[in-house]
Amino acid sequence: MNRAEMTAAVSRAVMRWQEAYDEAVGERLGLIAAERYCLGLLYAGPQSAGAVAAATGLTPAAVTALIDRLEARGLVTRTRSLEDRRKVVIEATDLTRELSERYYGAIAREGEKVMAAFSDAELATVLRFIDAALELQSEQLARLKAEPASAG
Questions:
Q1: Closest to 29 in 3D by CA, of 102, 119, 122, 82
Q2: Residue 152 — pLDDT band, cuts 50, 70, 90?
Q3: Are 42 and 91 in contact (CB under 8 A)?
Q4: Are the CB atoms for 34 and 152 separated by under 8 Å?
Q5: Which residues, at least 6 apart from 16, have a Cβ–Cβ distance to it below 8 Å?
Q6: Which residue among 43, 63, 66, 150 is the one 20 to 30 A from 55 at the CA level?
Q7: How many CB atoms lie within 10 A of CB 22?
Q8: Are 69 and 62 in contact (CB under 8 A)?
Q9: What is the model's pTM?
Q10: Is residue 36 within 8 Å of 22, Cβ to Cβ?
């Protein structure tokens, strides 16, 4: 992996890791976690409704309701895929991009400065750590979701 690919991978991993800040932004914008997660998925580009469902673990009906809410607020658009008219493609709007710049632009720019101070080998180590930590978190979340809920 070259430096540009490593830097982009570290940036994506950190984006997945920064839940506390995302939660504060979500509160300010009136977005619940699933809505924030959906908008985060769209950062990489348009996604199918099926991809949103797979990534969020929501049912197709819940994803439809989620997209309805985001579309009503002007945060996403929904169109039919040109390749397969049965598929719905979800895309972030200019408003979403403006809000992303307002709340995340400075962090992204400062983060690039931080990463510039690291060697390629150090970035590779940071990326390996974050990926391992996220995988551990994912495994533990799956375990937690599989356990029956208890009252205390």
A1: 102
A2: low
A3: yes
A4: no
A5: 134
A6: 150
A7: 20
A8: no
A9: 0.71
A10: yes
Q: Are 46 and 91 in contact (CB under 8 A)?
A: yes
How far apart are alpha carbons 122 and 111 in whole angstroms? 15
Cα–Cα distance for residue pair 100/128, rounded to 1 Å: 27
With CA atoms as reference, report the closest residue to 55 among 152, 111, 138.
Answer: 138
Cβ atoms 92, 39 nearer than 8 A: yes
How far, CA to CA in Å, does 116 sit from each of 9, 30, 49, 145? Answer: 14, 34, 36, 38
Q: Produce one character per residue of 85-105: b if its CB has 16 or more CB atoms within 10 Å, e if not.
A: eeebbbebbeebeebbeebbe
Strands (E), the chain: 47-48, 76-80, 88-92
State how far the Cα of 75 lies from the Cα of 45, in Å rounded to an integer. Answer: 14
Nearest Cα neighbor of 18 from 120, 92, 104, 114 is 104
In degrees rounded to 5, what are phi and psi of residue 132?
Answer: -65, -40
Nearest CA to 111 out of 21, 27, 1 is that of 21
